Amino acid sequence: MSKENSTNKSTKLLNHIALSVLDLAPIVVGGTPADSFRNTLDLARHAEKWGFNRYWLAEHHNMPGIASSATSVVIGYVAGGTSKIRVGSGGIMLPNHAPLMIAEQFGTLESMYPGRIDLGLGRAPGTDQRTARALRRELRSDDQEFPELLDELRSYLSPSLENGPAPVRAVPGEGLNVPIWLLGSSGFSAQLAGQLGLPFAFASHFSPDYTLPALQLYRNYFRPSEVLDKPYAMVGANVIAADTDEEARFLATSQQQQFLNLVRGNPGPLNPPVENVENFWSDYEKAAIDKQLRSSIVGSPQVVKEKLQAFLDITQADEIIINGQIFDHNARLRSYEIVAQIAGEE
């Protein structure tokens, strides 16, 4: 993690910060997971060419529209098909796993692709309760579970954190520099990341109301560490860019339908866009979806540039990670290309 000074608030512009990609490896209607993986690698190669900083994949289970359930496997696939972009998890849901296994998996990835692997960690199950039990998890509800698991994981990667010789060792993993990020959609992980001096990524793309309070908590609780001497915050943004506002709004209806299916408890593949999404939901459903997606940035290049800059002005983030749930792969590539072009402008 770089310890470069953050840009002054009055002058921080999009071309002063890193932009990254969050890929949910969408399975579209009529497509297969194999198609999704091919599209993921193609997007990653383009993102690398366009100058994006990192490419993260997310752990979700029992979700017919998301192919990245075996997250570390997909990370290896993407890292093996690219050459320099950082690749990682956004995130691994640590309570679903034995910390030793995550240390070994990411130690293996770091050994194969040195200096390119990130380990972003979340504390939610990434699924429903029934599926969580199928993952062989003990479903604890106390706030100490995640910090305990995190301490155990960090001790495998950095045995110096332990007081004595480690009876169990992560091989590979032990002694390797695998940057750990804490991810969150509320204040818990923000505070913990600050106390531990770790970088923090906030899920603004689906929890916009808590963005600023969480960032304030992180910065207020931050303590310098061997990892960072000052806070480093990344925020998520849904961005759907196209050559015209009309086209972008049309493409965005796929994401709106996806959230509608979640509100109805019926997740499915990513649907093609529709001309009038208003015909698909009730007033209550529309309000619920608008609340979650209200920070989404949808539009032509100039609109996206203005709204991304406004988002940066408000959050003063050190990095923005872009999620783009778009049905057509070529349109998705074009959206990220527009974002890259915007970021490169003076």
| Strand content bin | 5-15%
**Major sheet: arrangement of strands:** 1-2-3-4-5-6-7-9
C-alpha-based Rg, rounded: 19 Å
Q: Can you tell me the residue ranges where pLDDT is under 50 for at least 5 consecutive residues?
A: 1-8
Number of helices: 11
- Superfamily at the CATH H level? Luciferase-like domain
Number of beta-strand segments: 9
Provide the descriptors you would attach to this structure in a database record.
alpha/beta, 9 strands, 8-stranded parallel barrel, disordered N terminus, TIM Barrel, 346 residues
Describe this structure in words.
It is a single chain. With 346 residues, the protein is an alpha/beta fold. The protein has helices at residues 33-50, 71-80, 99-112, 129-134, 145-157, 188-196, 211-221, 245-263, 283-293, 301-315, 329-343; strands at 18-23, 54-57, 86-93, 117-122, 180-184, 200-202, 233-241, 297-299, 319-323. Strands 1-2-3-4-5-6-7-9 form an 8-stranded parallel beta barrel, surrounded by 8 helices. It is globular, with a radius of gyration of 19 Å.
